[in-house]
User: Fold these one by one.
Assistant:
Number 1:
Amino acid sequence: MAETVLDYEAEAAHYDRTRGGVPRAGAAAEAVLRLVPPGARSLLDLACGTGLVTERLARPGLRVYGADAAHAMLRVAAGRAPGRVVRADARRLPLPDASLDAVTAVWLLHLVPFTAEIVAETARVLRPGGVLIATVDKDAAHDVGSDIDEILRPHRSAAAASDRADLITRYAAAHRLEPAAGADFTGHGQGATPRDTVRKLRAGYFASWFPGDPATVDRLATALAALPDQDRPRADPRYRLASFVRRG
């Protein structure tokens, strides 16, 4: 489900605990590695956060680095990938042209309005044959057919999503990044409950769906609060990864 951009400096202390922890990170890393080209020697994990996914991407012969804009997140990540994380804006990476075999952006593109700039920058740092791997269509990942989805689905604004697959594909094509294989994985521990969805709704997590419309927020909150089993998690989301290969 769409989120407002959180204060990740404040979130670092409890981010892993509230985001599915090791099971979710392990599932993400396993799916990403299925898309990394054979023989790849270097990978940059953009918006690496606490490094929980980053450390699980390491494999023999593959040097994995992490980059994030939040100091607090990087302090945690540095303990998991010592000497291999850096503070950086994903639009201006401190790397030379054609220096990496793979770049990953897991749970990043839905958060920012400048996805075109991120795609352009990843294309710059990728070698020919290198690959960009990114989660896309995050809102749709949460549409698992639950009673919560039935209430929220009519208000989901796909056109407003900055990580729409067709949008990212268009940005990629402008920089000689061609679509390649995809993958998906389960967001373990991320199944929504009605009570927590009301909390997020009130906190503005879905504000981009109906900006400046408090009456709709009230109506949806009332409908969600009327659902049974207020604290029972519904099905976990199923995230989608897209990949794009850098042509020479």
Number 2:
Amino acid sequence: MRQANIYAAKAQLSELVQAALDGEEVWIARAGKPLVRLVPGSPASRLGGRGSLDLEPGSIDAAFSPEVEATVAALIGGEVSGSP
């Protein structure tokens, strides 16, 4: 296990990231107490932009239908503009 205090971690960030990528357990500490652990991410864990959802476009459009809007509004006690 590798541990670095926050100040030292700033100066060694590239090295600490590489160690985590290599499978080493890396902790960042404050006053010698571990606070956070660096772990490798994966491309699937990143937030994607438009087109990152594996859904049919029609299913997204259906989520915003007037019927759904009216149901949600009724559940929260609000009104939908354009509804009777």
